[in-house]
Design a protein that fits this description.
The protein is α+β, with helices and mostly antiparallel strands and 261 residues long. It contains six helices and nine strands; from the N terminus they run E-E-H-E-E-H-H-E-E-H-H-E-E-H-E. Helix 2 packs antiparallel against helix 3 and helix 4 crosses helix 5.
């Protein structure tokens, strides 16, 4: 096991463990920290964007060239795992059997009998595990779907609607991130900025088109905190300064919070 040590921004030393003995340690550290960022991203998306929500109940066939786990191999592997768990319990029981301090002949005989029976059971289980491993080794772990028996074949949920909704969620996440970074200019913590932007997304608005001035005013309702209203007012000014046109029209977007000039 290799250990990678790095200094954090606060100067504290942190370490991670890896079984990759060939790659450079700096690449291993970068890959693992990048993986942590991905895990944090998926956790955030599941928590606030319901990324794992079931969006489709229809099914479609899986391509015949898809590689899947062989059910026979999975069954043998499950039996091996179960037998290994039982073996570990027996080993613990074997270690807990202690010889009595007072050497009573009957107690010594019972101790030797119980120890011998448990040891024989352990040896039998080990032999059974080795036989199962030999059977698992003789079975292919992966098979093409077309090679599976008919009763073991399966279908998958349709993915078009799920991909479409996930794309919209990712676009919303990128918009949230951009607004949160803009709000960070008035706030200290990114988590607080994201929380504020999520609150804005749930806030009711008024759309006020004006054909004479060619504008479309997006008026937000005030929030419960005056400090947050000041941040939102700053966001409105920054977004209005981009002079963005509403898609499909010639109306320029103006962002306001109710009560502002």
């Amino acid at each position: 096991m290799r250990e990678v040590r790095q200094l954090s921004e606060s100067g504290a030393q942190s370490s991670i463990l890896s079984t990759d003995y060939r790659s450079d340690l700096s690449r291993v550290a970068a890959a693992m920290f990048a993986r942590w960022c991905q895990e944090n991203f998926f956790r955030y998306m599941r928590q606030h964007y319901n990324l794992d929500r079931l969006a489709e109940y229809g099914v479609e066939p899986v391509p015949d060239t898809t590689r899947v786990i062989n059910p026979a191999w999975r069954q043998l592997d499950s039996q091996i795992r179960r037998q290994n768990g039982l073996l570990n319990r027996q080993l613990v029981q074997f270690a807990e059997i202690q010889l009595p301090q007072e050497l009573d002949p009957k107690q010594v005989q019972a101790y030797e009998l119980k120890k011998g029976q448990l040891q024989q059971a352990i040896e039998n289980r080990r032999e059974a595990i080795e036989q199962l491993k030999a059977q698992r080794k003789a079975v292919a772990k992966h098979l093409l779907l077309k090679d599976l028996p008919e009763q073991d074949r399966f279908q998958q949920l349709r993915a078009e609607k799920k991909h479409f909704l996930d794309t919209i969620k990712l676009i919303a996440y990128r918009a949230e991130t951009a607004l949160a970074q803009l709000a960070r200019e008035k706030m200290h913590r990114l988590d607080d900025a994201r929380s504020l932007i999520r609150q804005v997304f749930r806030t009711e608005i008024d759309l006020i088109p004006d054909q004479q001035t060619k504008t479309l005013t997006v008026r937000l309702h005030p929030l419960t905190n005056q400090v947050h209203d000041q941040v939102i007012r700053y966001l409105c000014e920054e977004l209005t300064s981009t002079e963005t046109l509403f898609p499909g029209t010639d109306l320029r977007l103006i962002y306001q919070i109710a009560g502002s000039c």
